[in-house]
Structures are given as C-alpha cells and as structure tokens.
Amino acid sequence: MMRKMKVILNPVSGGGLSAKVWKKIEPILIQNGISYSYEATTKDKAAKDIAKEAVKQGFHWILGIGGDGTFSNIINGLFENGKLINKNVVFSPIPAGRGNDFIKTVKVPKSPTKALEQILGGTERFIDLIDVTYTKSDKTKGKYLCLNLADFGMGGEVVYRVNKSRLGRFIGGKAVFLLYTVVCLFSYTNKKITLTLSKFEKITNKCRLIVCANGEFAGGGMWFAPKAKLDDGKMDLLAIQDVSVFETLRKFGNLYQGKLSEDSKVISKQITELKADSDEDVFIDVDGENMGQLPAEFKVIPKVLPIKC
C-alpha cells in the first residue's frame, strides 16, 4: 500500500529557507510517483493544526520541512490525549530551520535531496517523547510533547529573546543563538529551583540551566547529551548549578565538545520523570519554542512516535 503523504512546510523557518528546500525535493517526489498534498503554515493555522487535520483525513505519512520548532509542532498534532490519532501514521523530517538539531541525532543529512533519498529508503522505528506539563501566564496548566530537548532557566530566557529577534535573517540562526546566549550569560541571575527526580530524590539549589534531553543536540549544535538515545525510555538530565559568568564561559567549550556532564558543578543523570518548581519566574523552552514557566513536570513516554528516516 502506498501511503498518502502530507507535506507540511513552515514558510518562515530558517528565514524562508523551507520554500527553497521544497522546490528542490518536490521533483523527486513526482519522479518517485509519490502522491502528496502540500500545505504551508499561516498565522492562523499552525503546523500542529495541519497535521491533526491531515491524519483525520487519512494521510498516513507526514513529511515536515522546517526546523526543530516546526517538527515539534507537527508531532504534537499527531496525538490526542497522549495517543496517536492514527496508529498507522509515520513522521519524516527534512531540515530547513535555524537550529536543525533534531536531525543530527536521527542522522538525517543536511542536504534536502540527500535527506529525502534517505527518508524514502529509510526504515520505520519508534522513538520516545517527553511529555511536558507547564504553567501558563494565567496560572492554568498547558501540555506539550517534546521531540528533542526541553530546558529551563537561562536557556528558556535565551529562546525567549531569540524568538523575539529579527536578527536571524541577517546573521543566521547559529549566530543569533550565540549572541543571546552571551547576552544572557552576563545578564541572567541564577534562580533557586527545586527538582524532584523521584519520590526519594529532591534537590533544591540555585541553578543556571536545567536540561531534559531526548536528543543529543540543541541551540544550533551545542552537544548537551552525548549519551542520549531517542528510544531508551529515559531522558538525560543536566543541571548546571550556581555557576558564575566566567565559569559558564569556561564550560561553553565543553558544551560544544559534549563534555559538559563531566563537570563537577553539573548534575548529570538519566531519569524517566522530573518535577520542577520555583518561587521565581523561570521560563521553559521546548524544542526552541517558549512553553510557559515553572512549576512543570517532564515525563518520558517510551517508543510512542513512529518515524521514517
């Protein structure tokens, strides 16, 4: 049976890169005789809404073109009440974003045509997601599924600023992330956060950054969790504690080399769930998008998302 493919594209991803990527891969779909329907996100219709509609209309193959935020938004549309709306659905990612971190873990090439070739010949497998329950500004609870990596503390602040910035189209995504990371390095004050890792383990400390990683990379190539596996039923926790600006700068080199977890001021563990709370405003970033603030809960749902790549 040939699956019906829905192509979902975010036209603003990577400063308009995704439309160019689509021009390159559309002929290949046609050559391969794959029947597809194509839709771009708009201000009123997010990738999540398009994906939800598509699976309900009987599309079984969802091809996303964009960055981590777009992929994450799409997969959120495939689920209702924590379950796949259509259990025969499969998701495939084509990179065209600012960060492109998720594809590094699934080993999808950056070249759109090579990525599509790999996807068409790829095997299907199931990967984990992290279920995030967060607090909205009106103090009600929100829910979102994390595909790649969630973090809070300084990282949430960085993403908050990156997403408000227009600099990406001039200096590129990696540079914008780096710029705001440096800005926040000097301006962010560490917050007192209580982490509950299990019924028996509680940590309260001033923290700079807490990461819950499903994939290995985030922030345009920062290698947070070299040991992370997408299908091991665990998330990698990194808690960078009360470090100064200069200590953080020193740790930065380690971050790009994947050596951060070896640091004495960093708590590094593999866990299945985490509760986090603070009396201060601590923002959360899920896959490069702002997702409310603490208190929050993070919980691994093992092998729940079917991907083909």
UniProtKB/TrEMBL annotation:
The chain crosses the membrane at residues 170-188. Keywords: ATP-binding, Kinase, Lipid biosynthesis, Lipid metabolism, Magnesium, Membrane, Metal-binding, Nucleotide-binding, Phospholipid biosynthesis, Phospholipid metabolism, Transferase, Transmembrane, Transmembrane helix. Gene3D superfamilies: 2.60.200.40, Probable inorganic polyphosphate/atp-NAD kinase, domain 1. The keyword Kinase applies. This is DAGKc domain-containing protein. It comes from Leptospira biflexa serovar Patoc (strain Patoc 1 / ATCC 23582 / Paris). Residues 1-136 form the DAGKc domain. Its cofactor is Mg(2+). GO terms for molecular function: ATP binding; kinase activity; metal ion binding. It comes from the Bacteria. One of its GO terms (biological process) is phospholipid biosynthetic process. Pfam families: DAGK_cat (PF00781), YegS_C (PF19279). One of its GO terms (cellular component) is plasma membrane.
